[in-house]
Amino acid sequence: MKILKTLLITSLFAFSLYSQESENIIDKAGNLVNSVVNDAKEIVVNNLEDIKQIEEEKRLQEEAEKLKKEEEEKKLLREVKIKDMQKRIALIDEQLKDNILLKRYNNYDAYRKISEELIRLKKSLTTINEKSADQVYHLNNKIRIKENELELISEYKGSPIGSLIDPPEIDNYEVITNPFGILNALSYIKKLENNKKDFLSVETRVKELTNLLEEKLFVYLDLYNIDPKPEYKEELEFLEKEKKDFNMVLEIVSTTEEVYTRKIEQVILETKSQISEQIEKIFNLGLIIVILFFVAFLIKLALKKYFSQNENYYMTNKIINFTVVFFVLIVLLFSYIDNVSYIVTILGFASAGIAIALKDWFMSIFGWLVIVTSGSISVGDRIKVTRDGQQVVGDVLDISLFKMTIREDITYTSYRVNRRTGRIFFIPNNYIFSEMIANYTHSGLRTVWDGIDIAITFDSNHKKAQNIVKNILKHYSKGYTDITRKQLSKMRSKYQLRATGVEPRVYTFAEPYGIVISGWYLTNSYSALVLRSTMSPEIIEAFLKEDDITIAYPTQTVNTTGGNQNFRVPPADLPEVP
């Protein structure tokens, strides 16, 4: 267009310059202008077509480049998506790596494949026309191997997760009949709750696994749509089957869980009801036992005012305690033993064996009953027990069901026999039937007869010596004589007493080495040795003051030539005077 305008202007300018030329010239100029214009038009048209062609080629090139770039971007995006999906699959596989349910499912899948293989082998065994012995042998071996393999994983025969699909068995609970049954019942309830929790956890794990499998399935589906490889298709088919199986398991577990939960709740409610009944029964029994002990306490309190001696109150206290315990045992026995006759029958059959095996125990129990009922020995009494030549004198500290406990004291037996004292002895109660037991303080009697023997020579005034001993004995034992007289008077109501003389007694005996003055007196049962050691020096001093009384001991008289003096020399081997 610019060229055309330029030519036109040039033509017009030329025309204006040469206007004075003739019309011929004008005509020629017009023709020239027309020719130029036509040529310009042709040139412009050709240029426009070339420009359009260039622009079209440029557009097509740009579109091709754009398409190529878009294809590259799509390819890159597809690769990124594939990598992202593979990462997601790897993450899901990491979560499924140690899943016990999936491992069990693998056993289930193996069971199914082995079953199919076993069916194929059995079919092959029946369809072989010409069966050689080797073929039959190998097929039978394969069949046995497959059967053994199926036996090992037989629990997966009908369940993708094996025995986990079955809830734990609810054990039959025993009826609560005693307090110990409460502990068993509580343990049983806890066990049921744990079983319920475990089965609920199976349902939760199956749900989680199903969700993971579904997520993995969707990822593989997207991956297959992007990159349709054959292995992706196989994985999709396997995941679809896996998901279907676990959806079936989830449905079964959910249905079973509802029924199992209701059953457990029912058993727990019944067990708790029995526990409540048993607690109420225990409370009632406890109340009865408390009442028994309270009544026993009131009885003890009332009886304490009527006993003058602690020993009697102690024994009465023991009897009351035993009675209360006996009644408590009877109450418990009839409360918790449903069939008492059954126990009696068992005890009847077992009594012979028990009597032989526990003879000493039973004899001790009978001895305890004899001691308690007869009152022959009481706590605080001083007794002497003799067994196999061993003598023990001591005070009774306690009388239990099987033994007596005594504390050895310093006595004449300690001085003459044991030479040691202060020990604690445990005397079985059955000794009262087989051994000699002497009671120094029976039935309130607190005194015993004790004696002192002193030997004088044959030429001594034995009558004077006898009077001296009697006076000393009366002087020191007067208080005990009066006490004994009163105590013996009380014992007449219980025993037939004849010789009840309580005055000191002195006897004279002719022995091989002199005259023995034997003085007997009443003394305190608990301190006989004290009075004996007090009177013995008194008697000796009194004898030494008398010229016609000489204390004798084993001697011999030696006559020497040239005199009539008598020298007393102790003999070499003479027995000791008792």
Automatic annotation (TrEMBL):
Q: Which coarse location class applies to the principal site listed for this UniProt protein?
A: membrane
A GO molecular function annotation here is: mechanosensitive monoatomic ion channel activity
Q: Which residues cross the membrane?
A: 282-303
Tell me where in this chain the Mechanosensitive ion channel MscS domain is found. Answer: 361-442
Q: Which keywords, in A-to-Z order, does the entry hold?
A: Coiled coil, Membrane, Transmembrane, Transmembrane helix
Report the locations given in the UniProt record: Membrane
Organism superkingdom? Bacteria
Under Pfam families, the record lists: MS_channel_2nd (PF00924)
Q: Reply yes or no: does the keyword Glycoprotein apply.
A: no
Q: Which residue windows are coiled coil? A: 37-80
List the Gene3D superfamilies. Answer: 2.30.30.60
Transmembrane in keyword set:
yes
**How is this protein annotated for GO cellular component?**
membrane
Cite the PANTHER family for this sequence: MECHANOSENSITIVE ION CHANNEL PROTEIN 1, MITOCHONDRIAL-RELATED (PTHR30566:SF5), YNAI-RELATED MECHANOSENSITIVE ION CHANNEL (PTHR30566)
Could you tell me what this protein is called?
Mechanosensitive ion channel
Q: Name its species.
A: Arcobacter arenosus
